[in-house]
Design goal:
The complex is a heterodimer of chains A (about 110) and B (about 110). Chain A has about 110 residues and is an all-beta fold. Chain A is about 0% helix and about 60% strand. The model of chain A has no long low-confidence stretch (mean pLDDT about 90). Chain B is an all-beta fold and about 110 residues long. In chain B, the strands form two sheets. In chain B, strands 2, 4, 5, 6, 9, 10 and 11 form a seven-stranded mixed sheet that branches. In chain B, strands 1-3-8-7 form a four-stranded antiparallel sheet, with no helix packed on it. In chain B, strand 5 and strand 6 form a beta hairpin. Chain B is globular. Classes of the chains: A mainly beta (about 110), B mainly beta (about 110). Chains A and B meet through strand 4 and strand 5 of A and strand 5, strand 9 and strand 10 of B.
């Protein structure tokens, strides 16, 4: 059965720290991996990664996929309280476009 | 903002009632997926519509049904509401066969069943 596992489930750090969130997957016919940030309501799209291994960056956030390890990491440097959210990872199978979701990592940034 | 809209934003119903949630997809997107998200959990896939046809369904009973219109907007209908149906319902639009499968979410509808 296809599955996506995120770790840790929750994380508390102080402002200015760097965090690394993990997403591992067992999905047949992998197409792409997506990262989302969810605050109070709907998830907002962060990055799309493929097996090319190209790192994606946006400001203090970056992400890369390791196709050998079947995993991806999301890094946030110089964290701010506004980074507090649930970070969700989802995999898109090649057979259809129905996302397979991880349970998310709840990140809390303390001032 | 993604351009995906949902209505209503909040809804309170009682057990046994029926509810209809609505979603307008982002311009140019022809695929709509619906998710149920309980507190503290990741989204659970309900079903997906592509060009007005159901294109896959998750592990939800038949009392969850949907519809997609020619303009690609969509409805989610839930009959015989149960307490466990209380959740955030998310709609996401995408352009099928786009390569990445990236989905963009609306703000969600918070459903409370009493």
């Amino acid at each position: 059965e296809d599955k996506v596992v995120q770790s840790p489930l929750s994380l508390v750090v102080h402002e200015g720290d760097t965090v690394t969130l993990n997403c591992s997957y067992e999905v047949t016919n992998f197409r792409s991996l997506l990262w989302y940030k969810q605050e109070k309501k709907a998830p907002t799209f962060l990055f799309m990664l493929t097996s090319s291994g190209i790192e994606k960056k946006s400001g203090r956030l970056s992400s890369i996929l390791d196709k050998k390890e079947l995993s991806s990491i999301l890094n946030i440097t110089a964290t701010q309280t506004g980074d507090s959210a649930i970070y969700l990872c989802a995999v898109v199978p090649d057979s259809n476009y129905q996302l397979i979701w991880g349970a998310g990592t709840k990140l809390i940034i303390k001032p | 903002e993604t351009g995906v809209t949902q209505s209503p934003t909040h809804l309170i119903k009682t057990r046994g009632q029926q509810v209809t949630l609505r979603c307008s997809s982002q311009s140019g997107h022809n695929t709509v997926s619906w998710y149920q998200q309980a507190l503290g959990q990741g989204p659970q896939f309900i079903f997906q519509y592509y060009r007005e046809e159901e294109n896959g369904r998750g592990n939800f009973p038949p009392r969850f049904s949907g519809l997609q219109f020619p303009n690609y907007s969509s409805e989610l209908n839930v009959n015989a509401l149960e307490l466990d149906d209380s959740a955030l319902y998310l709609c996401a639009s995408s352009l099928a066969v786009s390569g990445s499968g990236t989905q963009y979410f609306g703000p969600g509808t918070r459903l409370t069943v009493l």
